[in-house]
Amino acid sequence: MKFTEAQLESAIIELLEAGGYPHVLGEAIERQPQEALIKADLRAFLAKQYAADHITQPEIEVVINRLEADSTADLYESNKATMKLVVDGFLLTRGDRTQKDSCLGLVNRSGLARCVKVLFAATH
Q1: Is the Cα dihedral 74, 76, 82, 88 positive or negative?
Q2: What DSSP string describes 63-88?
Q3: Residue 45 and which of 4, 11, 57, 63 are 20 to 30 A apart at CA?
Q4: How many domains does the chain have?
Q5: Cα 71 off chain centre by
Q6: Does the residue 95 lie in any domain?
């Protein structure tokens, strides 16, 4: 049997929901249509994930700005560079110079599907 794109998408959504990950239509997510980042969710994720490191709101904004900053003319290269930051993480220079710089990971390996939802809005 040949899968159509819609059937494949439905099958993946069912698998994620069976694993406890809710499906939310892109139109239902609070964000500007041209924005790929779901900033409120990303802020909440970073605050929780790095609470023990005492991450500050200005540092969280640095992370968001870094993810938004790459706007090369080539969309493919821009997306590739952004995904590298998301997958590999990057060094966050701390605002408080008395604290060590921190290697910031943006993928919560224990909840990968949720992290994908947090970082990028679905287009459907």
Answers
A1: negative
A2: HHHHHHH---S-HHHHHHHHHHHHHH
A3: 11
A4: 1
A5: 17
A6: yes
- Output the six-digit token pair for 101: 């710089």
> Quick one: which of 33, 31, 40, 11 has its CA closest to 23?
11
Task: Extract the tokens encoding 87.
Answer: 């997958």
Range of the domain at 35: 26-119
In Å, what is the CA distance from 77 to each residue of 64, 74, 80, 94? 19, 5, 5, 28
**Does the residue 12 lie in any domain?**
no
The DSSP code for 1 is: -
Residues 14-42: tens digit of each pLDDT:
888 888 888 888 778 877 777 778 888 88
Q: Report d(CA 39, CA 119) in Å as an integer.
A: 8
The model's pTM is: 0.65
